[in-house]
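chain below, 275 aa
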Amino acid sequence: MTWNDLFGRVPVSPTQTVKWGPGATDVADLWLPKGDGPHPVVVMVHGGCWQKEIADRTIMNWAAEDLRAQGLAVWNIEYRGVDEAGGGYPGTFLDVAHAADALRDQAMVYSLDLKRVAAFGHSAGGHLAMWLAARPRLPQASPMRMDNPLKLVGVVNSGGLADLAESKDVTDRSCLADIYDKLVGPISSSRARVLSDTSPAEMLPLGVRQISVNGHEDRIAPPVLGESLARRARAAGDDAEARVVMNTGHVELVSPGAKAWDVEVAALREILGAK
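prediction:
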């Protein structure tokens, strides 16, 4: 599949767009299923190589709509890319953290179950979704460390680039290597390892269920990334696995109707305990 195959679908719209902060990207779309709730929630993080000129949250609209139709609420967040003012380190990470935590303010209004919240991220969003799960393990000196981050019960890492060191040499250069320094930030006297607070693979164990899903033919995020991350996570004591879908590239992972998407929906239901 190509991106044009996905973008050519009939447009769909969220239940509500919520402006949770003063910044231009301090916004999230809520996709609310039918019924009284409380609804399990998927915090959705779009990809696009951490660059807004490539993608924003609307790339996930069809995926979010399908989850809503299947009874899962979706909190589809936005954030500054490295190509926007204030994006990169630490702004991109802070945006994602604050956007996830802003879900709490919607829980009572929309009957959302904060005890059943999972993250789903595609591509660069897989990195950021895994990072959300890693937040409790951020170093004390990190500017992204916060008290009482939103608690997740698990993560689906969809064709994700969650191990920045390994992904840098595997994915397209324009996707990560060219913007790597801006994403991970500078070395300093108090921060000798720039991956210590930016790469989830360096913050294991995360203490939550992790399922990486990769397309066998994916050239952006080949299966080796999900498989090696799962091995590292299990070695650290986490409950983690990788699922590889044959005859699948990168786009199928967020395309309802594709086999890979069915695999990911099943993974989310498993993590959330949703029937």
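The CA atoms of residues 253 and 260 lie 5 Å apart. The longest helix spans residues 259-272.
thats it, cya
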